[in-house]
Amino acid sequence: MATLRLALAQHDFPVGAVAANAVQVRELMREARAGGADLLVCPELTLSGYPPEDLLLRPSFLAACQQELDSLAAATDGLAVLVGFPHSEGEVYNAAALLREGHVVQIAHKQTLPNYGVFDDRRYFRPGSASSIAVIGGVRVAMLICEDVWQAEPAAAAARAGAELIVVINASPWDAAKAAEREMMLVARARETGCAIAYLNLVGGQDEVVYDGGSLLVHGDGTVAARAPAFLDALLWAEFESATRTLRAQGWPAVADVSAEAVLYAGLVRGIRDYVRKNGFSDVLLGLSGGIDSALTLVLAVDALGAEHVRAYRLPSRFTSDLSAREADAQARKLGVRCAELPIEPAFAALLHTLAPEFAGRAPDVTEENLQSRIRGVLLMALSNKFGALLLSTGNKSELAVGYATLYGDMCGAYAPLKDVYKTTVYALARWRNQKEPGTRDSAAGEVIPHAVIERAPSAELRAGQTDQDLLPPYDLLDAILERFVEGEQSQAEIVAAGFDAETVRRVARMVLVNEFKRRQAAPGPKVTTRAFGRERRYPITSGWRP
């Protein structure tokens, strides 16, 4: 009976940081060797990061990855190491190299190249043609890469070739449905093949995606042996018994709250932290309006970076309510965030005066409303430039979907944490965060988002008595329609047939379709649903088709 000791590196390997990623692998090798591991496993495209996109078109980048791989191989010193890298040999392959005894002894090529959602593998890679098996510590180990395990044949081919254990390295982005789908798929593969599966996933934020880790061990009979926490870097230890084809986790970290809100919140925090730090910044700022979106964004930013790295600004106008001012100030004090007030009335009055000759004879309308938002955008961008702090845009997915946002106004920003979060989910996250118990490692516990902010009618406060529902359906209704139209790709007729009012559906669908031009200019934000605006949902701006 053979026993194989595994060290699974659920770690972040940033895109393009080839030398730094190799240094991290060397440190993990040291830890793995000290812990008696037979095999250290690192994620998909460890050295290049994922997705490297058009960096893969640069020969110097591919050469740097190969150079670091060869250097790592020379340092194996009795340890077997599986490392993801872009393998260039005329064609480029998404590959995993098995390193041991000072050499690259085997290379597995990704066989199934995803080209849907956020994935664009076929633009860069050629597919591999066979499943790779190596004998490590007396165990026949198959090496698959991400999408390979989502299809039945690569795992089946590995089983036919005698594999006992399938090791899968991944860069699988998170969304709210992914963890359950992933687990069901792995259970199915284990049952089909009789092989145990060690599934290692990347962790960390990269532009518009977040990787959750969430690594899994599955016994050969399809029983889940262990689940790693989401959004947590960890070296995960496990032992495989060939006689029973079982895997045993050793000391895996546990998280008390695994609710949907807890995991989503952790993903948003990770997205902010990694986007800011990986782009060479330490501080952020945002406009704090006294509304729910900016209130949640403020707490997320503080939890991600610490209060000392967050600046908030109130930018009141003639239409800003006392409630907004009072609650925004109260929240900033609670969180320990510096909050300054910069009234926009002088700039608004000056611009209205400048435009008066051209606007003569025309009644005030959305133009004047947008002007206020754009003044705020100019001020916040100036503050961002002056202080070297990234501006966070605070809009949510519901607003972005229907264009209830102002270009060069509230859409200004370097990163939009709530870009893929529907308004109803914003409220759910706010209530969840307020219920966190004292004594957590978060910035503050208790009511960090004022109750009055959660309960008030949402409003842009760009005219007297304005509420969002002047122009939009109630958010629970709007989000239900949007989820069908955006995530579900349902037609208007299908949504109406499901029981929704035909005129409301027509109005919402039209708003989604005519505002594509705004979304093309929106700041990046983390994908957390199954159909995010941006690289995942790419509709033409100019189109005669009306679904």
UniProtKB/TrEMBL annotation:
Pathway: Cofactor biosynthesis; NAD(+) biosynthesis; NAD(+) from deamido-NAD(+) (L-Gln route): step 1/1. Its EC number is 6.3.5.1. One of its GO terms (biological process) is NAD+ biosynthetic process. SUPFAM superfamilies: Adenine nucleotide alpha hydrolases-like, Carbon-nitrogen hydrolase. InterPro entries: C-N_Hydrolase, C-N_Hydrolase_sf, Gln-dep_NAD_synthase, NAD/GMP_synthase, NAD_synthase, Rossmann-like_a/b/a_fold. Keywords: ATP-binding, Ligase, NAD, Nucleotide-binding. Residues 4-242 form the CN hydrolase domain. It holds the Pfam family CN_hydrolase. GO terms for cellular component: cytoplasm. It is an enzyme of class 6 (ligase). It comes from the Bacteria. Catalyzes the ATP-dependent amidation of deamido-NAD to form NAD. Uses L-glutamine as a nitrogen source. This is Glutamine-dependent NAD(+) synthetase. The gene is nadE.
